[in-house]
C-alpha cells in the first residue's frame, strides 16, 4: 500500500503556515510570465485563485460552463462567512474557530489544514471589504456579525441573505480586473472533459492540460499548461434533487479520479436541515432557506401522534396546536445549542421525528419552523427587516404566508465534504494537479459548519493556493510551454470523442433526466441520511443496473457537433453514477457514524452518532482501478496533537 | 467630444435644450396670459419684442435649441432602434410604472413640431418675419406686424384652429410630463425621493403652463361665439 | 392549493444566431400549478425527447433566483408577470387554464440569440472588465474595520450590488440600453470609500464600453426598474449620470 504524505510542515500548530511560507520555493516575476496555469471553475475558489494567480503574474486560463464566471453556484450561498475577527469581543479567536471547525467536522479533518483556514479567515474579510463587498454594518459604521449553527460566538459576516453572491461578485470583479490586465483569459461555456498528463524527463506523469468541449459549437478542443487547478465544486447533484444548481456536477473531479487522483471521503455528504420540502415528482431542485432562520425560528413537530396525522391529512391548522402540545425537539434534546445545533444534528433529529410518524405536510416528511414567537418578541417589522426576502421567496414557492403560518422545512442534500484528496499544499496525488474549494476534501471533516464553505473557498483561492502552487512551479521554470499537438493530447481527445460517439449511438428511449431521477431515488433511499450495510450493498447493485440502463436505453437527440444540452447532461450523469458507487463503497467501509455519514448500526442509545476513533480516524482515499473494478482503499491516518478528540456534545 | 460620442453626453444635450425650451414656454405662456386681460397690453409686449436685436437673438437661439433637440432626438432614436436588434417581441406589455409618454417621445415630438409649423405660419410669419423682411403680408384687419392681439382673436375664432391647438398643447403636455423629470434624472439631480418629487412638481408645473396657453385659446374662441 | 391547468405554449425556436427563428406552439396538458415555470419547460422537453425531437434550449442554473442565468421573456415581460422575481421563481399558479403563454428570448442587438431561448450575454462581462472593480491585488489591504462606513451608505451599496446580471433591464428597454446594469455597479462602488478612489475613471470606462458594444441610450422610460427581478432603482442611473458628468467636466 502506498504511503500517504500529506506534507504537513513541522513545528507547532500555530507556526506551521508561517514556517511553510518562510521556507517554500517561490517563482520570480520574470519566470511567472512564462508559466501557464489552467483554472477550471469560476466559483469562489476558482475565481479568487485565477484572479490572484493572475495578479501575481502567471498566465491563467479560467474555464467555466456557464455564460459568465459570475453564475457559479457559490453565488447562491445565503447566510454568511466566518472569520475569527472577534469584532464582537465575545471571546472568539483563531484557535476557537479552528476548534469549532474540527469539532463541527466530527474529528475527521486535518488539524494543520483547519488551523491555517482559521488563520487566513481574517485576511479574507479584509480583502473582500477592500474589493467593495457591501457587508452589513452597524450604525456606527463597523461591520455587523451574526451567530450561526455550531458556534457560541457571533463571527459570521454577511451581506443580507446574499453573502455568497456578494463574495462571488467580489472575486469576479477581481477576475475581471485581471482579464482587463491581460493576465487571465476566460473560456466561458466550455466544459472540461478530460485531464491530460505528460511524462517529464524522469518519467513522472504530471498534469499538463485539459480536453474541453465548447458548449456552443460542440467542438472538442485542447488546452495546455504547467499546472491544472480544479475548483469545480461538489457532487451533491448525484441525488438529482439537491440545493445545488442544475449545472453543478462532479465530472471534472471524476476525470481526475480516473487519471489517478485519489477521491477522499466520498460518503461525507451534508444534508441541510432547512429546505423547502419536496412537493412532487416534476420537481427539479430543492430550495434552501438560509440557516440564519434558525436564529429566530423555533423548530417543532406535534407532541401527539394524532395531531400529526390530522396535519398530514390537512384536517388541522398548525396554529391551533397549543404550545404545550408542541415538541420543540431540538431545544428539548440539545438545551445548550437549541435550534442552532450543527446541520447534521438538526437534519438527523428531523428525520428521527418523521420516521416516528410525527412529520407534517401531506407527505409526513416535514417539520415546522415557526416565527410566531419571534414576531411576538420582536414585532413583525423587525422580522421582516431581517428575513423579508426569504419569507417572500417561501411564499412564492409554497403559496403559504410564513408570517401567519409556520414554515415547513425538511433536510436536503446541500454540500459534499468529500472530494479530491489534497495534501497540505492542495496538490492532489497527481503532480501538478491542484484541487480547491468544495471540490477537494480537506477542511470540513465529516460535517461542515454553516458559513464555512465561503471561508474555505476564498481561503484556498486567495491565500493558500497562490503560495503553495509556487512551491511546485518553482521546479517547472525550465519547462517550455507545451504544444497541444503532443500524442498525449491526441490520445485524450480520441478517448473523449469515442465516449461521445458511443453515447450518441445508444438511441434508446429514455431522457437523461429520467435516468438521473432514478439514480437520485436510489441514492436518497439507500445512501441518504441513514445508511446500513444492506442499504449500501443494495445501492451498489442498483447503481450497476442504472449504468446498464444508461448504456442501453438512453436517448440523446440532436447532434454532438453543435450545442447539445442533453449530451452535456448525459456526460455528467455517467460521472454521477460513478460517484454514487464511490459513496456507497466509502459508506460500506466506514463502519461508524460521524458527521454527514450515519450508519444506523452505529448509534448511541439516544440515537446520536457513534464514532469509532480507534478504527476510523483516517481519511479514506479511493484509488481508481479501471472501469468496472472496485476502487482500492488507501488510508491517511489523522493524528490529533493539539485537540482532545471527544464525543461531540451540543447538549450542555 | 463627450456630448456627441457618449450616450450620457447626448442625453445631456437633450436635457439642457429641453430645459431651455420649457423656460421659453413658460415665458411665452406668461406673455399670452396678458391677452386675457387686455389685447392692447399684449400688443405692447409685441411691440417691445418686435424684431429688436434681443428678440432676434432669442429667436435664433430658440431655433438652434429646437434644431439640436430634434436632431439629437433622431440620432438617439436611430441608435436605440439599432440597439434593439432586428427581431421584435411578439407580445409586449407596458408595466404600470412606465408612462405611456416616455415610450412615445419621438411621436409626441413630431406632433409638437407639426403644430409648431402651423403656429409659426399663423403668427410668426405675420409678425416678426414681416418686420424682418419689411413685408406687408398681413391678415386682413391686422394692424401692422406687432398686432398680435388681432391675430389671436382671428385665429381662435376659427374652430379648426382651436382643435389643432388643443391637440398640439395636449401633445406638449404629454411630452413634458415625461421630459420635465427626465431632464433632472439625466443630469443626475435625482434620486429615489427626488425622482418622485420631480414627477409631481413636473406634472403641476407643466399642467399650469399648458392651462395658461389653453385659457387664451378658449377665451378667444368663446369670445368669438358671443 | 394545487390544481392542474392546460394551456398553449408558444415558444421561439431558432437554430443559430444567423438562422431565422419562428414560433412553435405546444399543447401542455394537466400541469400542476405548484410546478415552477422552468419545471414546466422540463416537462415539455421530456415530451419532446420522448417524441424524438430536440428539446427547447434555455439558460437556467441555480433555480433559486440568484445566479441570473435564466432569461425568458414571457407574455410580454422579462422573467414573466411576477414582479421582483426571476423566471425560475415563477410558478404556474400565476397562469390561467386555457391561456396562450408566449415565450421569447431576450431581444437586443447586445444579446444575440445562440439557440432558441438562449442568448449570448458576454457583453456584460466585457463591461465589467472595462472597470467594474476596485483595482487592487490580493493582500496588502487595510483591516476591514479600518474605514467606518455608514449603515445607510452600506445599505444603498447593497441595494445596487444585488444586481444579478441577468439582462432583464436590456430586454425590457425599448432602447436596448444597459444603463441599469452599468449604473448598479458604478453606484455600488461609488457609494463605498474603497471604490470612490477610482469612481470617475470607472464611470467613464464602463459607460464607454457599454456604448461601444452597441447598447442604446437611456431615455428614462423606467421599464428596466419595473422589470428588474431585484428591483434595482433608476436612482442608480441618476447617480451614474452624476458621476459621469462630473468626471467629464473635471477632465
Summarize the structure.
The complex is a heterotrimer of chains A (652), B (226) and C (251). Chain A has 652 residues and is of the alpha+beta class. Chain A has helices spanning 16-23, 29-32, 44-56, 94-104, 111-131, 163-181, 251-258, 305-313, 329-333, 343-355, 372-378, 380-398, 453-473, 487-504, 512-526, 533-553, 565-589, 613-616; strands at 36-40, 59-63, 81-82, 156-157, 184-187, 190-199, 205-214, 220-224, 227-230, 263-264, 269-275, 298-302, 326-327, 367-370, 407-416, 419-420, 433-435, 618-623, 632-637.
Portion of residues in helices of chain A? Answer: 25-40%
Distance between the termini of chain A: 43 Å
| Global Rg of chain A | 24 Å
* Overall form of chain A: globular
CATH superfamily of the largest domain in chain C: Alpha-helical ferredoxin
Strand order of the largest sheet of chain C: 2-1-5-3-4
Q: Might you state the CATH topology name of the largest domain in chain C?
A: Fumarate Reductase Iron-sulfur Protein, Chain B, domain 2
What percent of the residues of chain C sit in helical stretches (DSSP H or I)?
A: 25-40%
Biggest interface and which pair forms it?
A-C, 84 and 78 residues
Strand content of chain A: 5-15%
Number of helices of chain C: 9
Q: In terms of per-residue confidence, which ranges of chain C show pLDDT below 50 for 5 or more consecutive residues?
A: none
- CATH architectural designation of the largest domain in chain C: Orthogonal Bundle
Widest sheet of chain A: strand order?
A: 5-2-1-9-17
